[in-house]
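Narrative of activities, Objective 1.

The group set out to show that a structural description can be obtained from nothing but a protein's sequence at a throughput compatible with the screening campaign. Below is one input-output pair from the validation batch, recorded exactly as produced.
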Amino acid sequence: MKFPFNPSEIVTPSYLYDLGLLQKTLIRIQNCIAGRPFKVHYAIKANNDRRLLDMIAMHGLGADCVSIGEVKYAIETGFEKNNVVFAGVAKTDDEVMQALRYGIECIHVESMEELVNVDAIAQKMGKRARIALRVNPDIDAHTHHYITTGLSENKFGIDLRMADEAIKLAISLKNVELKGLHFHIGSQILTNEPFVLLCKRINAMLDHVREKHGITLKYVNVGGGLGIDYENPDSHQFSDFEGYFDTFARELKLEAGQEVHFELGRSIVAQCGSLLTRVIYVKKGVEKKFVIVDGGMNNLIRPALYQAYHHIQNLSNPNGKTERYDIVGPICESSDVFAEGRELPVTHRGDLLAIRSAGAYGQTMASRYNMRPEAEIYYIR
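Output recorded for this entry:
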């Protein structure tokens, strides 16, 4: 990790974003999809920092949104309206109306109840809503149960066994245009095997829809889910984009005119961001040593919420003899822990630590819990 600042001059807690690394990541993605019927939408929920969004939009990616606030912000930051998709299980009537007014590319419908409602709203507005049905392919991605979304019974999407009924209903409605199908099987997936299984399920379903319903769906959204290496962020700065996109190019049996859409978030921004935090005290217990820092779960909730691992570096003392510490924050919650029993170079009060791979689901999930201030932001190239 390059760090051009004097550690003593950094205001903490703060987020540091490497815009140079983000640009390299985006160019890598562009090279992987060139010449293929592939379209990548950036999942704004991963990180909505304005400067990151500006750069992502400039590189031609679309936007995947899960609220009308994200839709509006995507358009304001330069994403083309016809390159914005809107997902989410609980879109309000007002959100649907605004999405239709914006004229975005597609609304992802996640239940038959929502499908009927979108049709009714479109009828009242004198519009025809472009939609895709989100179908759960019943594939276990073997990730944390909080981020597994593709199993049969889930709050997200339509059960595979109900897909025929939903497709038949969508075709019958006069105020919706069924563009295609949307799938998503989970997040932080580190092997291509689940994506191979997804492709096989999609191939079978597209064949079934063509044979039973007499239509060829042009829009195939395979979701996202591509993971990153949290343990070795410097040696693995990039996800396996080549293997990921090659898998879909090889395994999906597409017809002329069909287009594959992806919703990548974490793999685009995670490695370009770090949470910087300063050591307030090194507390000696009977059997443990605690490094108490000024950043907390209000700044980065993933370790508390998912028991997620983040690599931690001591920027003030990067080398030398190590000791084992529990690294904890200031929030009045026992779960405010970044790491337990972690080896770090000998750490002292005032040292600056970097909690790595925090560019995704860090700043965007932050809160003001305990009335703590928002983190400062720094950018490097």
